[in-house]
Each structure stands twice: as structure tokens, then as C-alpha cells.
Amino acid sequence: MEFHFGVLTIGRSASLAGLLVSLVAGLFLAFSPSAEAIVGETRALPDGTQQTTYRVGPLDVTSGQNRIAYKPMSGADRPAVDGWITRIQPNLTYANGTIPSSSKVMFHHGVWLNASRPDATYGGPQRFFATGEEKTNMDLPAGYGYEYKTSDVWILNHMIHNLIPDPMELYITYTVDFIPASAPQAASIKPVRPIWLDVENGGAYPVFDVHRDTGGSDGEFTYPAEADNPYGSGPKKNEWTVDEDGVLLGTTGHVHTGGLNTELFLRRDGASYGGPICDAPPNRQKGLRNYQRSIKKISSRQKKVKRALKPGKVRKLKKSMPTARFKSWKRKQVKKKSSLRRSKSSKLKGQKKLKAKVRKEQGQYKACTDTQPNVEGNRVRLFESDAHYFGNRAPVSWDVAMRSTKSDWRVRVNAGDTLELQTTYETKIASWFESMGINVLYMSNETDGDDPYVTKVDGEGVLNHGHYDENNDHGGTTPVVGPDPTELPSGLTPTDPVSIGDYFYEQGDFRLPGAAGRPPAIEKGKSFTFELAAGDAANEIWHSVTSCKAPCNKSTGISYPIPDGEFQFDSGQLGNLGGNAGPPTVGRTTWSTPANLPVGTHTYFCRIHPLMRGAFRVVDPKSSKNNQ
Questions:
Q1: Are residues 463 and 512 in the same domain?
Q2: Which of 88, 253, 265, 304 is nearest to 178 (CA)?
Q3: CA-CA to 591 of 20 to 30 Å: which in 176, 408, 559, 613?
Q4: Residue at a domain's end among 410, 438, 472
Q5: How many structural domains is the chain composed of?
Q6: Is the predicted pLDDT of residue 123 greater than 90, yes or no?
């Protein structure tokens, strides 16, 4: 239940390199405008911008598909004239235009590549727009655009994840706000350059694993900061040295399920905080404590006077005391009562006034510090793009939107500066396999941006979009996929290997009848092997064996099941892409269960096809307390 941004790179493999050469050399001969790509109706926006929805396809999505593919884009797949792109909104649809449920098919990613221009941060075609499971939009600030030429060579790198066995015919759509080069407003458009930052930048499958209970005591894991030597002796993949002076205009982060945010930083040699110094407010806690003690003493004395003036006590004193003495006593008590009331009122007013002064001073201090950049040494944070999960399933679903920078975000960067990206995932709930942290930035060649060491640019962002109805099926309810395996007797001794094919685990699958559907039992300290069936391997249908929390039998959705097994294990995506190790597979078709699992029933699911569930049982032959 994860997805992947890929990069087409020259020389990564012979097949991809050959594909790129053929695309660049003969695109217009080999790929003339396709009758299959349908161009939607163009409408004019109030400012004269043209808005058109382009439809790329049809794409034949095979049973259980989860692979990276490349499609050349020309003709009706994209604008017909030169101009400027100011906004892109992507989607995935059926032929009739309806949007499929994300619990059935997911738009893992789409990366729009321009092979006519070099990528700023990594060799290969320029990655100028990307979207993933959260369907992030590109929105450039007013007056800016990505320059488009009909002579450009475009390639769409896409990964469509079919979570079910049914094949389908789909289209990738993208709505473009476009200003033709011939339009009067085109003369004032300023060009932007896309800058791709990635915590694992490079290659077609830049992923890393996040294991539960790793990171700090806060239940969060930050990559690469808390990873164990993630880049070895090589360059830091999460960094990029700015190659020219410019202004950063906007960015949005990207994470997978379980992700909390991406954070963008800048380092500049010799730089330090250069803004105003905020004077901390005086400590007025002693004065507030004095008021509190005084009010407490007065209240105590008031209680004594009140008790003394109770009608019953007054009558007894009146009888036992001479009249003159009684009257004098009563006058003193009444006077004391009035004096205490005035004193308490005065103290309360003073306390209230002092509290108001404290609030004002603290507010002024906060207003000052809110304008201060987040600087540590020469490292300043530019923006945190946090993930906003809709509903009550945070952060375990892809019903999510990332925060984007506001339209007035303008950050000046200098040639030689280092941009750095990190990402944070939660680690209390589950492990998150094949995770990502990506930001696509847009940069102009201007020099009038804010100095991030003087002016705070790290403000709260805005949601990139709202909730999408295709994400309503969260799962985790009824009807259940199968019985609770912890309540079933043990099944057969597992064959070795246990085949995975046709969307079933050969033994222990919840949907199998009789003994085959019961958890096969192995002795403690032993292991057995799962093997991807030859037919599924040949058809590029990958499967995983990933632990989930028992009973793991509720309905399938975009946030159930998840890798939250009490005892963690994961096989990776079993398969050999083209007979070799290649994304997204782990390059093998077998995986063995850990031999150190404790006695009990262990449930698992397929991360690629979560309708698949299974269980096996570890038993102690010397004990009569095995879970049956």
C-alpha cells in the first residue's frame, strides 16, 4: 500500500537508455498524435488563461498491476502551441470520466519528464511536475509559468497500482492552466525552473523503510538524520548545491502513508542569524505569587469573620456579653468584613492588571520571535510541508493532502548554498515500508527574495487540496474477509514452499475452505518459505507477506490493513522484473519466515493486494498452552 516516484535516467539500464534515445531521436515519427488521447474542452478563465483537460491513454491496467511504466506524450496528449503552464491538476479516470475508488486502484505516481531539458539535481530528463497517491496539484504564483514548447520531448513516468484482480482500462488526466505565447499577458510571464529534492534522490525507486519503535522517544523517525549511515561513503542524496542565484517561489512535500512531514533547510557558508533580537519579557511570576498568597490570606480571614457572624453564634454572644461590649464587638466584625472585602477586591484588580501585563508582554515577545528565522548555526529552515490526514485515520491512510507554501513565499538563494531535505514518519503504530520524502520546488532567476537569515520564511502553509470522495472507503469494518484465525484450530503442517498465486496464499489464507484456511503450524525456532507462483511472476503480479495486527480480518480499504503486526516481518515485493532485480520488486521470488517468532498466531497481508490475508502459527511441542 505504498507508491513510488520513478526517474528515467540515461545509462541506468540498457533498456531504459535505449528507450530514451529512441524517444528523443524519433518521437514525432514513432509516436504521431494518438487518436486514443482525448483533449477536453478548453475554456477561458477571467484573466484570459486557457484551461484544458488532457487525457492520456487508454492505459491497459492488468490484473494486480504495480509497475513503473513510461509513455511518450505528444500530439493531443498536451498543448498544441507554445506557451506557459501556470497550474496542473492531475487525476485518474475510467473511460467515462468517473474516478475509481482508491481502495481498488491507486494513482501511485505520475512524473512529467521533459527530455529536452536537463534535470537540475539529477542526471536525465527534467522532472517538472509530479503527483502521487495524494494527487498534489501544481499552483505557480501569479505572473510565473513553466515554459512549454511544442518541440519539447515529454515522457510520462507513471505507476498505477491495481489492488484487485480485475483488469481495467484507465486514463491519466491533467488539467492545465495555460497562457499561449501569442497571448498579450505572455509578455509579462516570468519563467520558473523545477528543482527536485528527494531524501533518496536518484534512480527509479528512491525508497527507504521505516520500522516501528525506531527514532526518538517521541514515536517519530526522521530520515536521513536518524538513519544508520544511509548514504555510505557516497554523496548525501538529500542535498543539492544551488547552481545560480535565484528566488524559490513555491514547494509542496510528498510522503507515503505514515508520513508526517517533509522539512526544507538551507545552509550557507559563514551565514548566521542576522535579524532583530527579541528582548525576553521580565519574569513577573514572583509578583503573581505574592498576589496569590495575599488573596489566599484575605480569603482565610474572611472565612473566620463569616463564621463569627453566623446568626447562632451572634445570639449566644449577645446573651453572654454586656450590651455595650457586644455592640462594640459586632461593629468591629462588620468593619473588618468590609475592609477585607475592599482589600480582596483591590488585590484581585491588581492581580488581573498584572496578568494582563504579562499577556501583553508575552504576546509582544511572541510576535517578535514569530518573525525570527529558525536558525541553528548556518542552517535555516525554509518550510515544513506537513501531511493533513482527513477523517479519523491519521496517519494510516492516503486520504491526505500536503501543505504547500503560500503564494507570497519568496526565498532568495545564492549560488553555492546547499538545500537539504528531510522527512519524518510516525513509528508508534506500524512500520512503513518503501517510504519516500520528496519536494518539488520552483525557482526563478530573480534576486529580490527574502533573506532567510533575516526574515522568517518558515510560515504555516496552505492545504494543497481538500478531501477527495474516492478516498471514502477506509476499510477496517464489516463484512470481514474471513474468520478470526486466532480462534481457529491449527491447520496442516506448511508445505515448503507455500505458494502465493492467483491472489491466494496456498495455506492459511482466510478465504480458503476447511483445513487449508486454518493457520499452518510450525515449531518454535523453525521457519518455512513462501514462493511466488510462476504464473504470477510471469504476469508481473507481485505479492508480499507483511505482518499485521491480529485478527487482521476486517474489510479492505485505504487504511486497513496496515503493517502493524505485533511482531514485525515483511518479505518485500516478491518478483523478478524482466528476470532481474528491479523496482519495485526485491529481485527474488522466495522469502522465509523469521525463525525467532514467539509462540502464537501471526497474521499477515499483501501490501500490494490487501484483500489477501493469511496466518500461520508458531507452537511449542513441549507445551500444552499453544494458541489453538
A1: no
A2: 88
A3: 559
A4: 472
A5: 4
A6: no
Q: What's residue 100's pLDDT?
A: 96
Same domain assignment for residues 304 and 260: no
Beta-strand pair 144-148/190-191: parallel
Asked if residue 279 belongs to a domain, the reply is no
> Do 257 and 404 form a contact (C-beta atoms < 8 A)?
no
CA-to-CA dists, residue 147 to 119, 123, 278, angstroms = 15, 20, 43
Q: Within this chain, do residues 241 and 178 fall inside the same structural domain, yes or no? A: no
Residues 32, 118, single domain; the answer is yes
Residues facing 190 on adjacent strands: 144
User: Please, what is the end-to-end C-alpha distance for the chain in angstroms?
Assistant: 30
Q: Are residues 313 and 450 in the same domain?
A: no
**Angle at which helices 311-320 and 323-369 pack, to 10 degrees?**
150
Give exposure, 385-422, as e/b (b: 16+ Cβ within 10 Å): bbbbbbeebbbbbbbbbbbbbeeebbbbbeeebbbbbb
CATH of the domain at 184: 2.60.120
Nearest to 601 by CA among 499, 536, 481, 510: 510
pLDDT digits (tens, 9 = 90+) for 531-578: 999 999 999 999 999 999 999 999 999 999 999 999 999 999 999 866
Residue 399 shares a structural domain with residue 453: yes
φ, ψ for residue 378, nearest 5 deg: -105, 15
Kindly state whether residues 308 and 222 are assigned to the same domain: no
* Among candidate residues 431, 451, 472, the one where a domain is terminated: 472
Which domain does 39 fall in, by range?
1-191
Is residue 317 very low, low, confident or very high in pLDDT (cuts 50, 70, 90)? confident
pLDDT of residue 518: 96
Please provide residue 32's backbone torsions phi and psi, each rounded to the nearest 5 degrees: -70, 165
Closest CA to 418 of 523, 202, 284, 271: 271
Q: Residue 302 domain-assigned?
A: yes
| Cell representation of residue 28 | 514525432
Closest CA to 206 of 419, 12, 427, 471: 12
Position 374 in a domain: no
Would you say 145 and 189 are in contact if contact means Cβ atoms under 8 Å apart? yes
Indicate whether 437 and 515 sit together in one domain.
Answer: no
Three-class HEC string of 394-439: CCCCCCEEEEECCCCCCEEECCCCEEEEEEEEECCCCCEEEECEEE
| pLDDT band with cut points at 50, 70 and 90 for residue 626 | low
How confident is the model over 424-446, as pLDDT tens digits? 999 999 999 999 999 999 999 99
- Does a structural domain hold residue 176? yes
- Domain CATH for 620: 2.60.40.420
